[in-house]
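Notes from the 1:1 (GR / supervisor)

We went over the backlog. Supervisor wanted to see one worked example end to end before approving the batch request, so GR pasted a single chain during the call. The sequence is below; no edits were made to it. Supervisor asked that the structure be written out right there so they could see what the output format looks like.
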Amino acid sequence: MGRNLLLVVIALLITGCGSRVTGSASSSSPTSTFTPVSQPFRLFTHCGILTTYIAGRTFYLAELYPARVSFEGNPGNPEVSGSMTMLSPHVARFSDSSGKQIVFVDQLPGTLNTPYPYTVRLLSGGNALMDEPFAGRRWHTTETLPGVKGPPYGNGMDTFTEVPGTLTIVDAEDAVFRSNAGGVVHFTALGPIGCD
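Structure output shown during the call:
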């Protein structure tokens, strides 16, 4: 009987040596899954929405053109209550009680060296360009467009001249605006700042 047992063990070893194990039952590589997590959230909207702070880090508005995000807050309250859902480790979605949603990402949106259609605005009473929100940043310049002036100074609160062209993000902090008429202005991204 001892010899029979030895023959069975040898047969099993020989059979096992030449076979290939397949299938997920014996696979030891872990599969990563992410479960969306929602929590109550107050979104600061007073100066427009470009960024928010979630899960200990900055998230950026996924929409390149912030003006396309129609979100109405209460002028007397700079925050909107709702919920923030982490859809993945890199994407979050804010939802308010009326069902409006805003998507945020943890990387600056936009592709480098790609010209995006864009319109800059000149303030009334001169040739100074306004700071412009785009691709998760607020862009600033001290340069001017040659030969272009804003409208005459009126009340100074709501009058400006629009100049169409393209905005190309060169790197995380620099962009170049080219007007349709050929003028070129360099913009620099402003750091996180408060507003009045």
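Supervisor's comment: The radius of gyration is 28 Å.
Batch request approved.
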